[in-house]
Amino acid sequence: MLYMEIKIYADVLFFTNLLMDYALLYISLKIIKRKPHILRLISAATIGAAYGVFAFFVPVLPFAKSGLNIIIASFMVYIAFMPGTFRTFLKYILIFLAVSFSAGGIAFCILYCTALGSWLGAVSSGGIIYVKVPIYKLLFVCVVCYFIMSLFTSVSKKYRRNAEITYDVSVFSGEEKATFKALLDSGNFLTEPKSGIPVMIIRKGVCDFLAENKNPVPIGYKSLSGYGELYGFMPDKTIVNNKEINVFIAISEIKFGDGFDAILPCDFDERIE
User: Fold this and answer.
1) How far apart are CA 2 and CA 160, in angstroms?
2) d(CA 131, CA 121)
3) Tens digit of pLDDT for each residue in 51-103?
4) Helix or strand run (H / E) with residue 180
């Protein structure tokens, strides 16, 4: 029987896993519609990459390895996503594991069911794949993947309306009340500068009574056309789908799409859990 000697470079293995873990975390963030924090993503991916090197070279019993995988994934999710509640934390772990398993299954299928694995000199140990690719080629592939992902994201935004969710909202201020539909938008990261409270953007004419009995708070924003400023108001109470949330309401003269009169903060679904 012929044996082929394969040299495994720990630095290549670490860097490969670092890039892959970063990509998996980034994709998971896109799925849950959270704003990526680069430093936290890199920190979490570094933990995953270090564990990947350990798992490749150090034999561990299957049962213990499964538990260790979940523990490391939990650390990565907590660092990268900073979930607000335990329920949200569990949801994010499940999403990250689903993305990881899907990507891992696709990678194994491509590498070992085609000639690509042999051509790249792919080796698997402990569930970790090592691909004999020079660092500069790997960087080139990552840059290409980044541009493809960016293109896909920009194209998909045009069709996002079909999957967007609207909520029933009621705003109270004194004796006044307004009821309307609001859209959950992953792009609304506005917060009130001093308190950090998220901002719901509402169409002018829906809650104009807020301007009559509440003090305006300037809220700056940045868009493709430059910098601008909205005026926010803190209502007495805001109810969304029968749950009270704490948000500032900024009145905008921009016309929204059909079927809704306001845009909810990007983390609204997490805040009501």
Assistant:
1) 54
2) 6
3) 887 877 777 676 777 788 888 889 999 998 888 788 888 888 898 888 887 76
4) strand 176-184
Tokens of 235: 């209502």
Residue 167: which H helix or E strand, with range? strand 166-173
User: What is the DSSP code (8-state) at residue 217?
Assistant: E
CA count, 13 A, side-chain hemisphere, 104: 14
Note whether 216 and 234 are within 8 A (CB): no
87 φ, ψ to 5°?
A: -65, -45
Question: Phi and psi (nearest 5°) for 218?
Answer: -70, 135
From residue 153, alpha-carbon distances to 26, 66, 159, 225 in Å are 12, 33, 10, 20
Amino acid at 156: S
The pTM of this model reads 0.49
Strand order in the sheet with 248-252: 217-223, 226-233, 248-252, 199-203, 262-264, 176-184, 166-173, 237-240, 243-245
Identity of the residue numbered 227: Y
